[in-house]
Amino acid sequence: MRKVEGGEAFDEMDFHISTSAKYLLIFAFLASRNPATLDASLFDSTGGSDNRKRMRKSSGKSIEQKGSAEQELLMKGPGSFPLERLLACITSLVEGSLEEDHPEDGRLGAEGGDIGLMSDVLLQLSTLCNANFISKGESCPLEGSTRY
């Protein structure tokens, strides 16, 4: 127990978290708050698709509808996402960092540590689930994959 200036006492929790677990938490937050269609623009090194669309001027009504839709999403809370989506985001980040380090060969293979990376990610994910940082949902019967 430690005393605070206001006289309140609290238990000090000494909890260290690895860098890969921090990335997992960030990815899980982004995946739970953003639709899957935005993953390419968020995690791809090219920023999604290469073809640029011409932006139109928004009308006042569409801006209002967009604001109410954003408010609805905030009120609704985080959504669930499949494990494959989380792994794809992490793989794209790792591939991007490998391309920066070794531009001539940026692919992941058994030699490149892909198997070690996935086992580390799955271990960190189970640790975060056990610590209640990420909650594991029920699997979808149609998809057959676990949702978080």
TrEMBL record:
MF (Gene Ontology): DNA replication origin binding
Gene Ontology biological process: DNA replication initiation
Origin recognition complex subunit 5 C-terminal domain mapped to chain residues: 18-148
Signal sequence segment: none
Region annotated Disordered, chain positions: 46-70
Protein name from the UniProt record: Origin recognition complex subunit 5 C-terminal domain-containing protein
GO cellular component: nuclear origin of replication recognition complex
Pfam families hit by this protein: ORC5_C
InterPro entries hit by this protein: ORC5 (IPR020796), ORC5_C (IPR047088)
